[in-house]
Each structure stands twice: as structure tokens, then as C-alpha cells.
Predict the 3D structure of the following.
Amino acid sequence: MDNNIEKRLQNLRDRLTYIGDIFAGKHRDNADLLEEKLSSFTERARSDSLEDPYGDLAALEDLFNYVERRLEDNITAMDRVRIVRHPQRICLRDILENVYDNFTEVGGQDEYSLDPGMLIARAVITRRRGKKSYTQSVMVIGQEKGHGAEFRNGGSVKPWGNAKARQYMRVAETEGIPIHTYIFTPGSYPIEDYPGAAQQIARNIYCMAGLRVPVVTVISEGGSGGAEAIGLADRRLMLSHGYYSVISPEGAAAIEGHLKAGQRATPELIEQCARNLKITALDNLKFGYIDRIVVEPPLGARPWHFDFFRHLRQEVLRATDEVVISTRTLPVLKGLALARVRQPDANLDEMYTRWGLSPAAKDRLLAHRQQKFLRLSRMAARDRRPFFAKMAVALWDWASKPWVSFKYDFYRKHQRRIRTFMEEMDNEWEVFKSRLFSPWRKLTRKLPTGRDDAGKTKELTALSSWSGEGHRKRWNYLSPRYKIDRAVTCPNSAAYGCLDLWGPDLFAEFAGVCSHCGYHFPMEPEWYVKNVFDLGSVFEFNSEIEAGNPLNFPGFDERITAAQKSTKCKSGCMTFEARIDNIKLVVAMLMGTFRGGSVGAAEGCKFVEAAQRAEKKRYPFLAYVHGTAGIRIQEGTHGVIQMPRCTVAVRRYIESGGLYMVLYDTNSFAGPVASFLGCSPYQFAVRSSNIGFAGPGVIKETTGMDIPPKYHRSYRALSRGHIQGIWDRREIRANLKQALLTIGGRNLYYR
Amino acid sequence: MIDISALLDEIKAQPFRDIVITTPHTGVVTFADIHQGDKAHGPQGQWKEKPGTVIATLERERNPKPICSAEKGVISLLHTELEGRFVEAGTPLAVLRHQLTRAEVENLILRKALHLFPAPERAKYYFTPDVDKKIRASDAHSVIVREGMELLIMSRMKREVPLHYSGPSGVIYAVYFKYNENIDAGAPLIGVCPQDQLPTIQEVIMRVQTDWAEKD
């Protein structure tokens, strides 16, 4: 048997193993048939009893192709998950070698890298128009699985790997070259070492929301936060056998099955979750979270599918060209160019579009990208307002824009000058008045009926009086738990020897704070609304937007209804305008009491609208996180898309000159912290709060590491620079005011 | 001079320590599903984050509080007559018989046999260069210390102060501090034994190392 036949046989053996692995015991009859044919051919080939070995081998390969095509029709969502995780799946190095004409790996090489899971390369593509050839550079960034190489960590990137990606995105921005990102990750590596997994992902998303170069993303395995860290792009392509999801099906099954640490979900439950989460390329195209599907060969692309690489090259070129062309202003030329590029049979290698952009085109590119993300997932939030009510709000919004523009952009500027002038005049008048009346004052001071200073003397010398401000009832709202007559043990009692606290004292006067060690017991969201802000100043808006069940996840409607009933809120996010000592601000509050404060389409929608309202009214914007467990997994990608979406809204607000502050309380984890909360330059926490990316159970399951008991405490977040301060609950109001005045400046708005 | 062999015999005669578990405050006692003769374990986990076996629950003001075992051992006595009764603070609930481990026995003997030289304040400690050289060349047993000898350097915030030994003369048997590590005030730095007792102590420790059987 010659080497050529041996090589092709090895390929068939690999294909057979692949079929066995990805179907995990299903379609056994097909695999058995192929195995039998393959072994009989091998046996005969080895004994040289074949008359036409090449002909028979071609027939055998045809049989393999036929079976693969037939199995392709029966592929399920979970099979796709197994496909993208298979060591034979194409990886980023294969793409670099076959899609691009040349490349140089930067920021480390193979295992000698800060994080071998993140691969970055400067690559070139040569295109030809007529006789002239053009070489175009791109920055390629993506997770590298390396066909199962141990040191690549399965494409699970550590915070410093994401930091490396962000650094080279900035390099590409400086050089003005497009970025191609390839997502091959099951999720980010959930450790809190500096700067913290969540904090780094938030920085990446924030950075990508303002990158002034075209960004094209190709998704193969898009696992939640890890995917979003390099996924905010102008065009998002997805491989037909890939998946893009908020959580791995195993993780979803563990949550749905209420499994404890160490227990494993059944394959049926995992399969069911994979199906219900709607993670496939077709689903995501339908929702609008990806722009195009790149069709792969039957059962997914493997390194020997050279036709696929050619196709991928065309698609990536087409997407980049489209992004660049869409920034042009002349409508006719733009339309013609787009039509030319979009032709299905167009050979993009023989067309040339300059990828460099003018500053004005870069502005348009950025605006397109931001608008695109802001428009997403609106339909997934339930809004039961009547049509006319919605129209009235939209009309008011439209009509009030010129007035706001006049008020802040024109009148405010002149108003300052007028005020300065008036102040100067007033000062002069006071001086003149005091001089004019000074003889009269001298006269009246000497009279016995003059001023009575007794009251003033008493006020200054007496220690206190019962009618003073301090004896007013301290809190405007008391937790209902104060009515329960029982003692409560502080969790720190073993360490600090705290005595038991009597419930009515603890939850009323003490505001849920241990009087010995200062441990903060969780309080209700209402406590903050009524005690932090001026009484009666809270005005809620968008309360009609409801959390729904956009994926029709089985049994989830009832759970949402139960949460709405118990909290009397329609979603986990309450947005309102309020005042603190007459300082007006817009607040978005994520409530830990509503399904753990998880963020879905409704919550994201309300958050975005709150940021836009703050931007329009020029108010400071506070995100008060009473608690958040992450993205609501039952909403699938409708939830995960809120990460880039809300970050875009926040970035637009900050860049328009707004002051965005975040205050964490109780437990804040996962997606929101790794995006629109973590990207704030000013983050604070209430004492005894926990901040992190993944909880202890998830860390143990994904990394195998045991973590110390106080791993997620806010003090650790403070010491690694994630947050700027830790506040006592009873001092939130004073601290917020102080922060608003010191950080926000005189106008509570930067510029 | 302490009779070390007698001390070892004494420990061997009673190779355990009885720990009395008492109530931290008043309350009504409910015993957990535990019986006399049952095994109990102390706090577990890498950081001792998992509490030990629950012995009883003490309820005061509708606040039930578990009372857990602080050490590994066997419940040798359980005051079951207190079940459901209101008790005062400090009432014994159970007695835990804790088998001494090899390290505990060694520690017990050394604490009695050695003179421990404590750290005067929280700082990092080093031997003086002469002593350090000697210890590196052979071992700590070769260093003879006497009253007033300049033995250690106390280093704190880049301030280095020589420390003079005070106590009976002898050889350094044990060194309790590590390089570049802070030692709290009052914690022992070195253990010194009279030169003539050195072979006896070494022999006893050897016997403990080889003979002492640790029970689960």
C-alpha cells in the first residue's frame, strides 16, 4: 500500500472518529456501516488484493461524503456544540494560514505568550484589479483552541489575554487598519486576578464601542462574556455550525436542574437546554444579532476543507468592504458599490476597495455601529402601552429635542455670562447699601429694643435640643422585617464576637448594619429609593416595559409572573429621576429581588433609555445595583446582547459629557459587571457586597480551583482598583452627594 | 530539670485531651442527631471554611444557632438530659475526646522542656551573621547561647535593631521563625535546651516520631 493511500485512509479514520464523537452515540448504524467498509478496504489494501485501489478508495470517500451529507440534516443544537469543541474543528491558525496571504503573530508566540488562548496577528490580503495588485493589512484577533493543545486552555482567555487584545485593537486604530476578530471561546476564564475577568471584558467592550476602524467578527463558538470581549463589531458573521449563547448548555442545565456542586446534569436535560436556548446560527440571524451565515461543509469545517477557507475569505472581504462602503456619503455611488460587492458570485479578490477612512467617515462608521447595537433586541422586551401612548412619548421626545438643544447648547452658555454679570452688580449694590445704611445700623444697635441675641446664644452654647433636626425620625422607609420579633446572628460573630442583634432594632434603626462589626445585611430596594433620595422626588419612567419570555423557554412565563407578583414590579430594572439635596439625576436600579437582578431584554431596554434620557436632560446618571446575578439565561442571546448594547449607550452618554457612576450592593456578578457596569470610571460599593465575574461553584467547575471564602468581597475589588470606594449604607446619601459634587463639578456634567 | 521520659509516659497514659463543649449564651438546647461514642470532626476545607460537626442547636429569641465541634474526636459524654431545656451560658453540653496527634505531643513536650525566647514586637527576625554562618555550616544545635549574647536582628520598616538573648544557657533546639516573615509580639522565636539534655530530648522526639500512632 503506498503512502498516498495510507494518508487518505488516515483522513477517513479521522472522519469516522469525528462522526462518532459529535453524535455521542447517536446514528450508530451509519458509523458502523462506514467502519465496516473502511476496515474491509484497509484489510484488502494491506494484502494487496485490490485491482483498482484508487478507484475503490474514491468510492469509499464518496460513501463517506454521502453519509456526512445525510447526517447533516439530522444535526441538533447540542451536536453543534460538540462540533465546535472538537479538536478536529478548524482553529484560528488554520484560518490565518488559509484565508490570509501572510501573517506575523504579535504579542507572543505559541506557548511563549502572555495568554496562549488569545492569538493576535498582523495579516495581509493581496487583491488584484486588472494588472495591478494591492496589499491590504488587517489586525486579526481571536481565541485559539489549537486543536486541543493543553496550553491554549480551550480558548478560555484570562484577563491579561483580553487586555492584550484591547492593546492591539488600539494599535490597529492608530494604524488605521481594519480588525478581524474570530470568536472561538466557550467563555472567559473566571478569575479575579488583576484586573479581574469582568473588569477587563468591560474595558474591551467599552473600547470596541468607540473604535474608529472597521471591525468584522466571525463567530464559531461564542460563549457569553468571552465572546463579547472581542465581539462588538460592525459586521458579525457566524459559521453555520457554530453557536452563540449566553451560557453553555451544561451550565444552563445545572441551573435549570437546580444541581448542587459536584452533581452532573443528565444528557437529555443538556440537549433540551441547548434546544431551548436557541443558540444556532439560524436562530441568531432571525433575531438580528448576526448579519450573515458563512456556510460550512457537512458536519462542520475541518482543516482539510480548503474550499471553505476560500469561501470564508470572500465573506470576510465582502463584510469589510461593505463596512467601508457604507461610510460613504454619495448615495448613488455607495449603492452601486454595495450592490457590486454583495453579488453572490462576485470575486472579491479581483475587486479593490480602499480600507482607509477619512476622519468624517470614521465618525459615520462609529455612529452606524452604535446605532446598530442600540436598535437590537427592542422587540424582545414586552411593552404593553397602547399605540397612542407610545406615539405620544415618541412625539414628545422628538418635539422636546430642539428645546433641550436651545436650553443647553445656546441659552446655558449665555446664561453663565448673564449670571456672572448679575453677581458682580449685586456685589457692588451690597457694598453701596452697607455704606449707605451704616449710620442707621450704628444708631439701632445702641437701642434697648435692638436685637435679642438670647436665642442665638442658647443655640451656640446648649448641647442639643429636642426639637432639633437630629431627632427627626431617621429613616423614611423601614424594612418590613423589623416587625418580626426575633434575634439575628451576624455572620461575622465567630470572627469578631458580635452579639446577637434584635430584629426590630437591626432592620429599623440600625438600617440593617451590625452595630458591632458593621456587617451590612441585605435590605430591600425600596429602602434605598426612599432613604437615599429626597422624599417625594422620585419619578419613575418606562415602568410599563415588562420582562417577557422571548425564547418561549418552557415554564419561564410562570416564573416571570411569580416574580412580578412578589415584587410588584414588571421587570428587574427600575428607572427613575430623583433628587439628592436638589441635585437632579437619572437612576437605573437593578433589583436583586426580581429573579436575582438578572438582566434581560426589558432591563437592557430600560437601562439604555435611562442613559439616553440622562444624556438629553444633561443629568448625572447613576446605576445603582441592588444585586445582579448576571444575564438572564432563559432569554439566551436576547440577554447577552445587552452587554454591548448597554455599553454603547453608556459610552455615548459619557462621551457627550455625562457623569456615569455605579454603586454596587449585595451581590453583583457576571455579564452586567463585565460590560455596562464595569466600564464606568467611577464605581463604588456598599459594605459587605460581593463583586465578581463567576461565583465559587462556576470557578470550581471551570478551572478546578478552590477559591478562598472571601474571594469576591468588595475590599478585594477595591484593592485591585476595580472600585473606587466602599461606603456605609447609612452614609450613601451623603457620599453620593459628595461624589456628585466633587467628580461632576459645578454643573454635574463634565463639559 | 524536667524528667522528659516521665512526661512522655504521662502523655502515653492519657493520649487524649478532653474538650468540654459549653453553651456560649443562654437558650433552649436541641441536640443534633448525634450519640455518645460518635465521631465528630472539626472545621474542614483548605481554609477551614466548612464548620465542624453540629453537636446541638441553641435557640434564643427565636434565633437558632448551631454549636459545632472545634476539633476532631469522639463524643465521650453527651448531656442529653438538657434536651429541650433552657440553660445558662457556660453549661456543658458534651465532652469531646480528642486524640493527640504526633505534632501536638511533640509540641507539648518541647514547650515543657525548652526555654522559649519570645519576640518583643511584631517584626521580621534574622540571626546575626556569625550565628547564621554557624547554623548554615552545621545545624542549629551547634550554636550555644548564653545570657546577653547578641543573637538576633529585629528588622522592621528598614530599621534593624540587634536583639540580645536572655534566659538560661544552652543550645538552640528549635527555630520558630522563617526568613522574611513577620512574627507577632510574644510568639516564640527559638527554643533553647540545656546542652546536657539535648540527647534525651532528641531521643524522646525520635520515639514520638516513630512510635506514636495517630488514630482516625
